[in-house]
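Final report, closing paragraph on structural work. Over the funding period we assembled a curated collection of sequence-structure pairs, and we close with a single example.
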Amino acid sequence: MPPLAIRTLARTIGSTIPAAAATILLAVYSFAGSGTLTVSGTQWGITSQYLGANEGSSQFNINDLVDLGINSYRMYGGMSRWEPTNAESTYGSPTIAQIEANPAVINWAFYDNIFTNPPAGSDYSWSASTGIPPVTAATIISDLNAHNITPIIVLRNRDNNGNPTWSPNPPTTANDWNVWFEHVFATVYWFNVRNSYVVDNWEVHNEPNNSGQGWGGTEAQYMDFINYTAQAIHWVYSHYLPGRTPHIYAPVTSNCCAWALSAMQTEGPSVFDSLDFHDYQSNPSEIVTLRQSMDANGYAGAPAWITEMGSYHQNSYDTESSANAKIISWWIQASQPGDSYVTGAQIFSLYDWGSGYTSGFIHGSYPSAEVYKPGYYAMRLAARGLCCGRPTYKTTSTISNLVSVVTKDSAGHYYLIADNSGSPGVTVTANLSALITSGTGTQWEFSSTKNDVIVGTPTLSNGQVTFSIPSNATELLKF
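Its predicted structure, as stored:
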């Protein structure tokens, strides 16, 4: 979907999740009133390894990402952003062979400038002319690296606005491929070789099956596009980044799964290693279809991402009930083992996209003050309980429509997250004795009256604890 974003209410600062791996328990239920929840002491699986958000053009503030406790951030890169005009004076020069023989043939002065001194003083000038922050690509990536947040970069020859108009779309001639190869090579090389940033996750276009997102070719031509893109990326890593492995995502479509099947059957793991699509449904059910295709086509066990989820509609995260269902419940379900498992999930979008949209978790175009919507707090509570790659333990419950999780961090703290997506409220007696029998903890609540606020200090007795969950709300307990 085209980039959009959202705004938010007042902000309550809470704990961020430790980066260390931890243990977690989880399951999905249907709502039916008060009852019990029991956790197994046997590991079930692991949570999604990457939980994060898509960017928005109205702001970039690394403190927001750190406060959220997410570990990944998706950015829409490519020619409109980092090569709005041809970097070279002659179209089609230098050639692929010349670049591979000596990267010095690339006009590095152009790329040094675009990444550190973008047009209009903002790395978002490609998408909007007002309400954009004065930030550079170099600063964004540097901030992400400094806080161990993985950047995921989309590589596009054209964007959703049809820019840049000078670029080949689709590339077909030798000169066209020279131009595209140079752009990909230069982007990867600039971040990782010419500079010491860590950018290892690359998406091959954005929704190429959706012409409104910029791709002007056929499905078959996109497969050629994957190959040339992968050739440029792999050349940089194999020759200049020993020991580093790139992760190449394809086909990054707006739905599942026809293009993914074609890509798996015509290409192979040596070209791209991760499957990816966008899913704005209420739960990540389509991932089952994708994983079954992966199992049958040489990609069993490979990463499967959903890099856009949630909602691209206006004001979608402004209510607690919507945020509770679209974020917390969705992320819990994405961590179920087996065919429903999602390697990485990126919510769309963290900030508003331009001054005309209010679709982000954080409202307010630069330089106005940030306004944090309920969805922001839902994401923060979910990340505290689920991020990232923690062992899971299955629960059983007598309560229908309940989604629950328990996590254990490296310091020995257990987290129980219980999401009630229905009405009315429910009283839960949770039995954690298979994991822990005593302790006093902290309880956070996300509800219509509390945005990720500490509401109590629950105590375990023989491994059991009783607590209430309002309708359309989530409780997070830490022991």
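The chain has eleven helices and 22 strands. Residues 195 and 299 are 33 Å apart (CA to CA). We thank the funder for supporting this effort.
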